[in-house]
Write a structure and sequence with these properties.
Blueprint (H helix, E strand, L loop, with lengths): L12 H13 L4 E8 L9 E2 L3 H9 L5 H9 L5 H8 L6 E4 L5 E2 L6 E6 H6 L1 H24 L4 E4 L8 H13 L4 E2 L2 H7 L9 H5 L4 H11 L5 E3 L5 H17 L6 E4 L4 H14 L6 E4 L5 H9 L6 E4 L1 H4 L9 E8 L2 E2 L14 E7 L5 E8 L8 E2 L2 E5 L2 E2 L6 H12 L4 H4 L9 E3 L1 H17 L1
Parallel strand pairs: 6-7, 6-11, 8-9, 9-10, 10-11, 15-19
Antiparallel strand pairs: 1-5, 1-12, 2-4, 3-5, 3-17, 12-13, 14-15, 14-16, 17-18
Length: 450
């Protein structure tokens, strides 16, 4: 596995070719770029901000080291004076961002970077890469948590995420958005996330008899015993688990429960619950897993299928029904001149901006207003906060636990029709009068000169 100790070159080549052209043409003035998502994927009507911590760490430590310079020199397309310049480049700009765990909506800038244009340009790729993945996963995970209707959901996706970095960021982002834990032991160590796990079918089938596998496992883990009962016949496995539970009771121990990972999960949960209840074991929990996502969890919740918790893996870890977003990082101001893009279907909003959020007296979110940076609306909360100035953190970032609590406290105040798993309503987002006026002014100027 290749370690990325210095990710400064984790960028698209055209960021560097543009940077050289900026350099030789004297384009060194401050520029502001806005990061936003243009449209909602299917069945989405909100996003969860995530990935900011990685972005800010990257910016603060940004440096193109000698090994990277040597590589660029070997491509024989960059001028020596530009490469000498790159050796000294550091990120010296300002970042304003919506904090991790907060909700945001389409067209709203989740982040704005202001820095000399070369600095702001060459960091684009990394910023999009991190915010796109982590916000997508946090949003998908939040939907799973909502659909589970107060039942715990844990992440089982590590083996099928798209690489090592994704596996780590999926664990973090899903926990941020309400997951109870992860199977990823390294993420547990690095981020302080609760780690969970039971057994695989290979463990059961390695024993000649299922009963012997169950007995071996509870002997080794008498206080953490969830038995996987679907290797052969799920209902028969449940009855064997009852026998094991009784053996544990005789020793003063208690079986925590069982996991079902295949078959007709709704039907099997009802049958297994009945087996345990008839055996006088109502406290035994049933965990559901196996190809689940929010659509399955909603179906189970609506039908009151008796699962106590869920393990959600692949479909969450790759955001299977919405694996990409139309995320963009667009220049909105250069050298104090507001700019915009008029490409068909990709029009951008000019100028430095603020997102203002209005809530009612009970805390429920009413609407957002995309405004110019200095505009204010009485009673509205400005969401974009200065998190970096002169290339340095302005204050320590909230911990993952604090960002998780931020998400949970805000999500409960988003109205149910907007959180709906299928065909949700869209949250109201308006443009301020000042922003609309500036947009028309800049557009008229462009059309006169092009």
């Amino acid at each position: 596995m290749h370690r990325i100790d210095n990710p400064a070159l984790l960028t698209d080549l055209y960021q560097l070719t543009m940077a050289q052209a900026y350099f030789h043409s004297g384009q060194r003035a401050p520029a502001t770029f806005s990061l936003f998502i243009r449209s909602y994927p299917s069945n989405r009507s909100y996003f969860v901000a995530a990935g900011m911590s990685d972005v800010l760490d990257f910016l603060e430590q940004f440096k193109i080291d000698s090994e990277a310079i040597d590589y660029l020199s070997s491509r024989r397309i960059f001028a020596d004076d530009f490469l000498d310049f790159l050796k000294e480049v550091r990120f010296t700009g300002e970042v304003r961002a919506i904090p991790e765990g907060r909700l945001f909506f389409k067209d709203e800038p989740v982040l704005e970077v202001t820095a000399p244009i070369i600095e702001a340009q060459i960091v684009e790729t990394f910023i999009i890469n991190q915010i796109n993945l982590q916000s997508l996963i946090a949003t998908k995970a939040s939907r799973c948590v909502h659909a589970a209707a107060a039942r715990a959901v844990v992440g089982f996706s590590l083996r099928r995420t798209h690489g090592v970095d994704a596996g780590m960021k999926v664990a973090r982002s899903s926990y941020l958005a309400g997951f109870a834990g992860t199977s990823n032991a390294l993420a547990g160590q690095r981020y302080g996330i609760p780690v969970v796990g039971t057994m695989a079918h290979s463990f059961v089938s390695s024993f000649e008899h299922e009963r012997d596998a169950f007995r071996a496992f509870v002997t080794s883990f008498p206080n953490h015993s969830i038995l996987l009962i679907d290797t052969y016949d799920t209902v028969s496995g449940a009855r064997t688990a009852v026998d094991i539970a009784r053996e544990m009771t005789a020793r003063g121990q208690q079986l925590q429960g069982v996991r079902i990972d295949s078959g007709d999960l709704a039907k099997l949960a009802l049958e297994v619950r009945n087996v345990f209840d008839e055996a006088g074991l109502p406290e035994a929990k049933i965990v559901g897993s196996g190809g689940l996502d929010e659509y399955d969890l909603k179906t189970f919740s609506d039908a009151q299928i008796p699962y106590d918790s869920y393990g959600v893996g692949t479909k969450m870890g790759v955001s299977a029904d919405a694996p990409w977003s139309d995320i963009a990082y667009k220049l909105v101001e250069y050298n104090h001149r507001p700019v915009l893009k008029l490409s068909t279907g990709k029009v951008s909003l000019p100028g430095r901006k603020q997102v203002l959020r209005l809530s009612d007296d009970h805390g429920y979110l009413i609407k957002d207003i995309i405004a110019l940076q200095d505009e204010q609306v009485t009673g509205a909360e400005p969401l974009l906060k200065i998190v970096m100035a002169k290339g340095k953190f302005v204050a320590p970032l909230p911990s993952l636990e604090e960002s998780r609590l931020t998400f949970l406290s805000e999500f409960v105040n988003l109205r149910e029709p907007i959180k709906s798993i299928l065909n949700p309503e869209h949250y109201p987002v308006e443009q301020s009068a000042g922003l609309q006026k500036l947009h028309l002014k800049v557009e008229e100027q462009i059309r006169r000169t092009h």
